[in-house]
């Protein structure tokens, strides 16, 4: 225990580590503030657009009224009736846009969500509305169904939604849509979400590989307990070699101290957006719905015939609090796994920079190009594991959260055992 405390004390005294810690902390805070400013600009842009629409429709109504008057003076009753209908339509559109502008400006989301629900329900209830379009390409029925249920849950719990770059229906993007060209750009633009609250922002960060990046930074800062003391300039291991205790005791002191600080670093970075948001917009609701795919059945005729079914494939939602709870437990296992991998590399390679590049490359390649059930790196993208996106795309229901937790933990134990055996039986570290 004394050796463990001594190793922890050495980690606390490294000035470069604290500098990197504060740079990372400031970076996350700065990114949240930037994200918040972008969200506010988009919100104001939506308000300005609705104001423009209201004025444009009002101007069109005035023009239609003048045309109606001219038609009446010319005795053309048919044209006068047509212009009258146009005038009424423009006036109604102007009033609707003006009302929506007030809703947006006052952030009365209940009314806006109700409007979205009214516009989505006919798309599902009537087969004649089986498709809705962005430009000239249809939105999948799966996306329409998922968006409607999300809106209903937001309405039920009176939850403030994300900010999106549109004044119409805020669609929930799903893997079932297949747009191309300019339509894809437009779809990505209007479905990009901006969370102004702490929980929402953290949720978005996790979708953007925030967790593995933070863990990799942590292991880089705290996982060099052996490699940093086995070089030519720093021979701390030689000091331990003169003391009357085993290499096993030294190994676990260095391993555990670095692991503890990496865990602490990871959780502090995860908490940073939430704490920062308390000084601005607040944390938001933990009841926010998170989409989870139930997956599609593999084709009995072989993987070549596998296909998603937007109309019949099912889904469900979990609350954000359940999502974060899974992320919390997974974070512990992911830290142990990546830290163990890095620690093993540090026994062979003394350069921390090379070690982190190797580990980062293995993580990225394993995660992106080898989505297999028993590939531990498949489970690094925890968002896609919890939402079952990878399992659905791969038509492999075995790729799931519980499997990932068990696999990563078992592999971590194996790697740690290999590291211990190597350290205990290779005397070159003490030479």
Give an account of the 3D structure.
The protein is mainly alpha-helical and 431 residues long. It has 2 domains: 108-194, no CATH class; 199-430, no CATH class. 67% of the residues lie in helices and 5% in strands. The chain is built from 15 helices and 6 strands. The strands form 3 sheets. It has a two-stranded antiparallel sheet with strand order 1-2. The protein has a two-stranded antiparallel ribbon with strand order 3-4. Strands 5-6 form a two-stranded antiparallel ribbon. The longest helix is centred in the N-terminal third of the chain and has 59 residues, at 15-73. It is elongated, with a radius of gyration of 29 Å. Residues 236-243 and 427-431 have low confidence and may be disordered. The chain crosses the membrane at residues 16-34, 209-227, 259-280, 323-345, 352-370, 405-423.
List its traits.
single chain, 431 residues, mainly alpha, 2 domains, elongated, membrane, ABC transporter permease
């Amino acid at each position: 225990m004394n050796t463990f405390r001594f190793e922890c004390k050495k980690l606390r005294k490294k000035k470069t580590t604290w500098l990197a810690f504060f740079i990372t902390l400031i970076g996350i805070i700065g990114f949240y503030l930037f994200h918040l400013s972008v969200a506010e600009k988009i919100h104001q842009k939506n308000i300005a657009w609705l104001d423009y629409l209201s004025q444009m429709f009002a101007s069109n109504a005035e023009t239609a009224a003048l045309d109606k008057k001219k038609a009446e003076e010319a005795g053309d009753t048919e044209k006068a009736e047509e212009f009258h209908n146009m005038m009424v339509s423009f006036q109604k559109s102007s009033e609707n846009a003006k009302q929506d502008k007030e809703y947006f400006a006052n952030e009365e989301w209940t009314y806006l969500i109700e409007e979205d629900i009214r516009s989505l329900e006919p798309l599902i209830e009537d087969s004649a509305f089986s498709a809705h379009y962005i430009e000239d390409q249809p939105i999948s029925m799966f996306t329409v169904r998922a968006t409607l249920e999300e809106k209903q849950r937001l309405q039920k719990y009176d939850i403030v939604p994300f900010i999106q770059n549109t004044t119409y229906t805020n669609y929930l993007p799903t893997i079932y849509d297949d747009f191309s060209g300019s339509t894809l750009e437009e779809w990505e633009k209007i479905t990009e979400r901006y969370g102004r609250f702490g929980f929402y922002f953290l949720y978005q960060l996790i979708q953007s590989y925030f967790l593995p990046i933070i863990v990799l930074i942590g292991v880089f800062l705290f996982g060099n307990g052996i490699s940093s003391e086995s070089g030519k300039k720093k021979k701390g291991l030689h000091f331990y070699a003169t003391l009357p205790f085993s290499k096993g005791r030294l190994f676990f002191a260095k391993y555990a101290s670095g692991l503890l600080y990496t865990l602490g670093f990871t959780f502090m970075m995860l908490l940073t957006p939430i704490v920062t948001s308390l000084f601005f917009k607040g944390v938001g609701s933990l009841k926010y719905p998170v989409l989870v795919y139930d997956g599609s059945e593999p084709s009995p005729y072989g993987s070549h015939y596998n296909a998603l079914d937007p109309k019949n494939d099912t889904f469900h939602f979990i609350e954000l609090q359940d999502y974060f709870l899974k992320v919390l437990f997974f974070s512990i296992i992911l830290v142990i796994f990546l830290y163990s991998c890095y620690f093993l590399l540090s026994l062979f390679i003394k350069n921390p920079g090379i070690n982190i590049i190797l580990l980062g490359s293995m993580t990225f390649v394993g995660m992106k190009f080898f989505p297999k059930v028993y590939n531990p790196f498949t489970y690094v993208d925890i968002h896609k594991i919890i939402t079952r996106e990878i399992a659905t795309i791969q038509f492999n229901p075995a790729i799931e959260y519980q499997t990932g937790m068990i696999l990563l933990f078992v592999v971590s134990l194996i790697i740690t055992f290999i590291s211990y055996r190597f350290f205990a039986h290779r005397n070159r570290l003490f030479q």
